[in-house]
Amino acid sequence: LALVLIASGPAWAADDDDTTQTTSLKVMLDWYTNPSHAPLVIAQQRGFFERHGLDVELISPADPSVPPKLVAAGKIDMAISYQPQLHLQVDQGLPLVRVGTLIATPLNITLVRADSDIESMEDLAGKSIGYSVGGVEEVLLNTMLEHNGVAPEDVEMVNVNFALTPALIGEKVDAVTGAFRNFELAQMAQEGVKGRAFYIEEEGVPTYDELIFIANRDTLDANRDAYTRFMAAVEEATAWIINHPDEGWKAFKASDPALDTPVNKKAWYNTIPRFALRPAALDGHRYDAFESFLLERGQIKAKSPLSRLAVDLSQP
Amino acid sequence: MSVLKRLWPALLGILSILGLWQVLVVVTGVPGYVLPSPLSVMQAFASHQQLLWHHAGITVIEIVAGLLIGCISGLGTALALARFHGLRRTLLPILLISQAVPLFALAPILMLWLGYGMTAKIVMATLIIYFPVASTCYDGLRQTPQGWLDLAQTLGADRRRRLLRIQLPAALPALASGMRMAASAAPIGAVIGEWVGSSQGLGYLMLDANARMQVDLMFAALLILVTFGVALYFTTDAVMRRLMPWHEDRIGATS
Amino acid sequence: MSVLKRLWPALLGILSILGLWQVLVVVTGVPGYVLPSPLSVMQAFASHQQLLWHHAGITVIEIVAGLLIGCISGLGTALALARFHGLRRTLLPILLISQAVPLFALAPILMLWLGYGMTAKIVMATLIIYFPVASTCYDGLRQTPQGWLDLAQTLGADRRRRLLRIQLPAALPALASGMRMAASAAPIGAVIGEWVGSSQGLGYLMLDANARMQVDLMFAALLILVTFGVALYFTTDAVMRRLMPWHEDRIGATS
Amino acid sequence: MTSLGFSLSHARLAFSGQWLFDGLSATFAAGSWTGLLGRSGSGKSSLLRMIADLPIPDTHALTLTTSDQRPLAGRLAWMAQQDQLLPWRKVIDNVLLGPALRGRPTAAQRQRAMTLLDEVGLSDKAEQWPKTLSGGQRQRVALARTLFEDAPVVLMDEPFSAVDAITRLELHELAARLLAGRTVLLVTHDPLEALRLSDRILILSDQPASLSDFEVPGGQRPRALDAPDVQRMQSQLVARLHSAPHTNNEGST
Amino acid sequence: MTSLGFSLSHARLAFSGQWLFDGLSATFAAGSWTGLLGRSGSGKSSLLRMIADLPIPDTHALTLTTSDQRPLAGRLAWMAQQDQLLPWRKVIDNVLLGPALRGRPTAAQRQRAMTLLDEVGLSDKAEQWPKTLSGGQRQRVALARTLFEDAPVVLMDEPFSAVDAITRLELHELAARLLAGRTVLLVTHDPLEALRLSDRILILSDQPASLSDFEVPGGQRPRALDAPDVQRMQSQLVARLHSAPHTNNEGST
Ligand SMILES: Nc1ncnc2c1ncn2[C@@H]1O[C@H](COP(=O)(O)OP(=O)(O)OP(=O)(O)O)[C@@H](O)[C@H]1O
Ligand SMILES: Nc1ncnc2c1ncn2[C@@H]1O[C@H](COP(=O)(O)OP(=O)(O)OP(=O)(O)O)[C@@H](O)[C@H]1O
Ligand SMILES: [Mg+2]
Ligand SMILES: [Mg+2]
């Protein structure tokens, strides 16, 4: 029975032609609400979604690998995911497509303690490195290591799940990868430990969009209009945040009292410059290049055409 | 009240744990993101009260529903296994296998099927409780002294009545043991469910707080959860004792 | 061999589950990234054999070590509780509380203390097993028929010998029930430990495979885990039966 | 109720390869009382179990025919050597176990159970848990439970062994009255009891054991203890029991 | 071993507010055998439990003095009304339970246990599980266990109730031989048994109950059953038991 539900697609698809009515959208975040999700929270709070005829429900998962599956299965309409993951998922045959960008630069860094003897990535040879989500992160790290002349076999990879910062400040690992530059650095500072970051795009990895919106390719055409309106609302919210950073922070923390922490505040300001100003716009070259990069590294079986990976909702 | 009296040693235990914990934190100087002091947990508790109670309410509903459904279906399975010889050959191994599967592995699938609402969490809590109850009850049902079974036979009992009027009451002490354990496992079930996908409940709050390194808030949520788990244990214990007025533990349980 | 004979229904159960599963997948057309078909899991199994066995070896060590330590310390606690009246008032609530704490909540902290090596996983498996064993054993130890205790008293047994020669054997059936359950829970403990942080083991492999969307590989690992869990259950069952030659289940367990 | 006789033949029983008895046969006339005597361990309880069709772990076989050719099951009451009271049922509910296991006891049945309890001298214990009873009281509850069944065939395994001499005589009267017309097989270790209550005495002896008849005094059951016949026959019966070799204690053959 | 006498006074016992007895006293001379008779439920087993200092759920008190003024604990063997065999110990190990509970049985003790088992007629069952025994066999194992203890004070609660008449006589001889010089308190429902084995007979009767003496035949224990004294006194004893009112069955006061 449950499977029938999965196959039947989003419930709202039926009354789609009635555009005057508000459309409900279920959007799953990649992880717990944090400043990276600011445009969504603000758009929700300030009624931008509503103004665009959308009734958006934001849901956070505990496991970032879940949202793409739910989108692919038609359980939710849209999810926030990561560009590198998208390439793998499309390669695996998941009917996913990027419909927008939330954060337009990589956030990924490899992080070590500033008081450690690791001055550059070359020094990672023989060290242990923690990571939280397997797969792409390993590929990216290996690329960075090789770029710095370190053989991937020379480091010990430890899956520390989501305890990146504690593992590092607790000195259970020498470095962590897959940390976010806007968040983990602030987190470390909060605990009084200075961190040193190695930026992924400076260490031989092609640049990419860290956070993207993905949707189900099979139902895309039916929902194109709603998604377009969604991106417009996000764009408005982003602009508003950039214009009113302090007011934005107040609004953000008011949305959930649990968000009001010093780390979040710091991360808030760190994140603002990284939001995509035109969420719907697509830099096709980026996707093409990253696809080639992954193929080269043997992570995907074949190169998918750009149209399978991403659409530009702003193009008619 | 005897319930209060029964809860008293538990409270004492909690207090002594708290004391030990505070001493540990002070003495070892363990950083707050690893183990916050009970005082800072209390502070977090106080400053997030509303948030905590809101999430606690949801989790409690999940736990109680899971416990009830789990116990009833576990008992039902045990009875069915004891009643129908044929079932045993096929159902028992399946049961076993279902228990050996780490449920969290299946959680994403469950979520896909059941959505991320309360149902999925109740199902998780139910599943976690279900097997221990089914297993202990079934073990209990199998230990009926032969003499009573003989008696049932000569008195012309059918299998159903023999099961319900002889084997089941005879298994009650074993069953109580299983239920007590299930009661203390129920919170875990609900929390796992919440971890896998939800935006409400203590489990969500804990993961969320953990991810934000608000470890004190996480521990405050944990504290509620633990208190509730312990209360549930003693409630179950009291209920089971009420069900067995003829039975006495040889060594008082908590006295 | 009786062990083989006892395992046979379990194998049958596994096979029937596999069959059902394949049918389910074919009929409902559920996508492979949600639920791979058993056939594709078998393929993944075949093509990753070495990898799987390597990680399985590590997890098995963790599980067995956790099971042994958990059972022994659980039994020890139960004996201590039954032996020393004073302990009961304080230790029992602490025990309860420790059980009510969702271990996974503490898992990250445990990892921070114990590192990401095997120790932490063994500790997790141990903790998961410890409480159910302690609780059932203690429940069992309290149910000794009064007549035997009287006998022990008039025969001049000290508390220790009474415990070991009367209460303990009398509790063996209850104890067996607890151990069987613990055996099937042990794999879960080890896997949780691995999920929270590790670079080896089936749990690690599952997590990794899941992140890479190699759901078939993840299920292959799961299959090994489940098989091992079931085997462990039956082994424990056989061992406990061996320990109780005088005892017979009224209804054959798996026959 | 019409009386129901039965007979058994080819009864055989072995434990771990050693025959307790083989090829036993006996006929129990409708409405007759048979006393079954025999040394401890000679197989009396096992024989009763076999007649009641209760599980026995080892090799055993028995051909049983009833006077109306229909199976005995459901028309038989069995009182075991142990009282087998259910600890979770009050005394009165233990007496009512039969009806409770076949359906729901009626008020009339409850009334009858109360009367029976009164007759075995335990009316004031009706609402107590079995664990508060003395050994003899427990046995009397078990007796009441058996009498309640009102079955045409009644097997009783040392039903009066735990009560004092006076109560025992009273229970004899009670049983004789309530089980009049029933076919009763009574295992007992008390020769006097057997002589007082039986129409016929069977002695299980030898290894493998066989059944032998012992002549009983005439007259109406229960016979007076001071009847000269009874006194005389008691010595004869004891002598007869004495002459039967000890069935166990000699190892396997 | 020197004999050990003891006496009790101010023995009182009530269950749920109803006095079973109050202010009982009795003296048990060193080396004497006392038969304790009384109606079922009169409190015999409870009295034995009180002497053995075993737990009793309700109000009870007892003053016990021994002839050497030292406590009785550890110098007393108690044989309960139920056999209380441990199912996880083979028959021989059940006999050896005492030494096993106080330490580790020696080879000599094992030998003695074997001899005792032989004397109760169960040497061939030594290595069997208790569940394979008949009711009378179980009781004999319990007796062997009690005799093994070789305690100066022995309390036995209907120790021969489940064995046949012949075995019972043999066990009388055995007990009389092995327990010579011990102070024995024997609860029994068989007047003849009491007359055969006791130096003194106490009857527990009335409600609340009191103890009354009954004169016993002279001569050496165990007395022959056909001694004229014994036969005559049996009728007297039965008459005496008859005259004692039924202790229960009359509701609470
Ligand atoms: N735990 C208890 N709670 C309430 N009443 C009890 C309890 N134990 C015993 N009694 C009552 O005390 C009385 C005496 O019991 P006891 O076992 O001493 O009798 P007894 O003389 O040994 O009888 P019998 O010859 O039948 O063995 C009985 O009426 C019994 O119901
Ligand atoms: N399960 C068993 N396994 C092996 N031997 C058994 C089993 N049950 C009974 N026996 C043996 O069978 C014999 C007869 O047992 P049964 O209980 O029928 O004797 P009984 O005549 O009723 O004796 P009693 O008068 O002592 O009750 C005994 O020697 C006993 O040891
Ligand atoms: Mg018998
Ligand atoms: Mg008694």
TrEMBL record, chains B, C:
Belongs to the binding-protein-dependent transport system permease family. This is ABC transporter permease. The chain crosses the membrane at residues 7-35, 55-82, 94-116, 122-141, 170-193, 213-234. Keywords: Cell membrane, Membrane, Transmembrane, Transmembrane helix, Transport. It comes from Chromohalobacter beijerinckii. It is a multi-pass membrane protein. Pfam families: BPD_transp_1 (PF00528). SUPFAM superfamilies: MetI-like. InterPro entries: MetI-like, MetI-like_sf. It is found in: Cell membrane. Its main location: membrane. The keyword Transmembrane helix applies.
Automatic annotation (TrEMBL), chains D, E:
PANTHER family: ALIPHATIC SULFONATES IMPORT ATP-BINDING PROTEIN SSUB 2 (PTHR42788:SF19), TAURINE IMPORT ATP-BINDING PROTEIN-RELATED (PTHR42788). Keywords: ATP-binding, Nucleotide-binding, Transport. It holds the Pfam family ABC_tran. This is ABC transporter ATP-binding protein. Signal peptide: none annotated. Residues 6-231 form the ABC transporter domain. Belongs to the ABC transporter superfamily. The keyword Ribosomal protein does not apply. The keyword Ribosomal protein does not apply. One of its GO terms (molecular function) is ATP binding. It comes from Chromohalobacter beijerinckii.
